[in-house]
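USER:
I wish I could look at a protein chain and see how it folds. I am handing you a single protein, as its sequence and its fold in token form. As I understand it, each token names a local backbone shape. I hope you can help me see how the letters and the tokens relate. The protein I mean follows directly.
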Amino acid sequence: MEENKEISALFHLIDDPDEEVFGEVSNRIVDYGKGIIPNLENLWENTISENVQERIELLIHRLHYRDLTDEFIQWNKNIHQDLLTGALLVARFQYPELATTQIYQDIEKLRRNIWLELNSYLTPLEQVNVLNSILYNYFNLKGTEVGYQHPEEFLINKQLETKRGNAVANSILYLVLSELLDVPVRAINIPRQFVLGYYKPDYDFSRHTEDPLYKTEFFIDPMSGQPFTHKDVENYFKRINVPPVASYFKPLSNKRLIQILLEEFSKCFDDEKNRYKKTELLALAELITE
């Protein structure tokens, strides 16, 4: 963006010690939109003050965040909320300049390798075993315990790069592939666990009067792909002393999955310096309405 007198004057005020003045200056700069980012980056490179550099970084973040907010609003309004698109929007919070070409290529390679092994004669368990074999053995995806000191393990770009993801991230990748391959796997959120369920092909996802528990053929651990039975789930509920009510087995929508991803990801930013990121991520989660 060509620098005019107003932009030049605003840039000179970025180092103003008065927070109220800086707040007003920030709002005026952000009103210029993303086109002003190259100017801010040039200013950052020619600034020796760490405090001013931090303020410039915050301004650039605010500009990206404003655009991201608009994209989440649009994603929420779409007739179909594509899960991969939602996961990429979350990743762009941390990596605003994220290039998606490699991610789509990696997903397509996984999809094709699984598709080549699938056929209409396979049982549900055999279908899932094919998916698991490619994802966990061939691709070598590893599951990690949810650790809020590792924000990258929530993000699909880093997950594909490092082949490590926690239960939420692995579930989303598993579901992206399942949807592309017409394998009827959905996520459920039972207490203290995040698991997947293989649903009977005639299950009507638009109705909530049916008992989803008994429309589920079996369950899948997203950390390893390991299938487990109804009996295993019933024993788990007995162990934690919680009644297995039907609502725990209702499939989660793509909207709810991305909402959970944002909420869990926000817990990575609970320190004083980064708490504004937690607030922003929770604000994005609140934009998503069922």
About this structure: The chain has a mean pLDDT of 90.
